[in-house]
Specification:
The complex is a heterodimer of chains A (116) and B (106). The relative contact order of chain A is 0.32. Helices cover 0% and strands 55% of the residues of chain A. Chain A has strands at residues 3-7, 10-12, 18-25, 33-39, 45-51, 58-60, 68-73, 78-83, 92-100, 102-106, 110-114. In chain A, a hairpin with a 1-residue loop joins strand 9 (92-100) and strand 10. Chain A has 116 residues and is an all-beta fold. Chain B has 106 residues and is mainly beta. In chain B, the strands form 2 sheets. In chain B, strands 2, 4, 5, 6, 9, 10 and 11 form a 7-stranded mixed beta sheet that branches. The model of chain B has no long low-confidence stretch (mean pLDDT 96). The chains are: A mainly beta (116), B mainly beta (106). At the A-B interface, strand 5 and strand 10 of A face strand 4, strand 5 and strand 10 of B.
């Protein structure tokens, strides 16, 4: 069955960096666009980035543009989110999701806490 | 940016009753509208895409309707396991945007 497993979250100081990973299985990863979506504690959902199936096209929310980078390794079925210049307002659970007509499949999420 | 507005914020329904959730877009999103269910402590799950097409494995008790700027999600007969927050999301324009959610209480 389809499985997406995020990792790499944790506690980081403001201004620091973190790289999240998402391991995909149970489907042909290289055929799918993928996105990262986050959810601040007790809040709603915010889409933050998308990458095309072939790694050739990316899109970002204004809130993370210039600080976050999405990329993927189709040979390893891995999706990444490199997060730099982190701020307190980036504190959230980060989900990866397959992206076709809506976000079909989601991982369980990984918590990123930005605090001094 | 397209703003998605959901109503009501909280919906209290008795078991077996019908629940209707609304979602309004600030401009037309055609039928590029999805609904998600998020149970406490879990990741969201896709229920509906294309405004009215049920995702794989979603029971027939969930139905979506509407197009343009007005959309609804209907749960025909509410069960205790339907306790959740429901989000709408448009994928017609960038950035992809979500509504603020409707919490369904039993």
């Amino acid at each position: 069955q389809v499985q997406l497993v995020e990792s790499g979250g944790g506690l980081v100081k403001p201004g620091g960096s973190l790289r999240l990973s998402c391991e995909a299985s149970g489907f042909t990863f290289s055929d799918y666009y993928m996105s990262w979506i986050r959810q601040a504690p007790g809040k709603g959902l915010e889409w933050i980035s998308q990458i095309s199936s072939s790694n050739s096209y990316t899109n970002y929310a204004e809130s993370v543009k210039g600080r976050f980078t999405i990329f993927r390794d189709n040979a390893k079925n891995l999706l990444y989110l490199q997060m730099n210049s982190l701020r307190a307002e980036d504190t959230a659970v980060y989900y990866c999701a397959s992206d076709s007509y809506g976000f079909d499949y989601w991982g369980q999420g990984t918590l990123v806490t930005v605090s001094s | 940016e397209i703003v998605m507005t959901q109503s009501p914020a909280t919906l209290s329904v008795s078991p077996g009753e019908r629940a209707t959730l609304s979602c309004r877009a600030s401009q037309s999103v055609n039928s590029n509208l999805a609904w998600y269910q998020q149970k406490p402590g879990q990741a969201p799950r896709l229920l509906i895409y294309g405004a009215s097409t049920r995702a794989t494995g979603i029971p027939a008790g969930f139905s979506g309707g509407g197009s343009g700027t007005e959309f609804t999600l209907t749960i025909s007969s509410l069960q205790s396991e339907d306790l959740a927050v429901y989000y709408c999301q448009q994928y017609n324009n960038w950035p992809r945007t979500f509504g603020q959610g409707t919490k369904v209480e039993i």
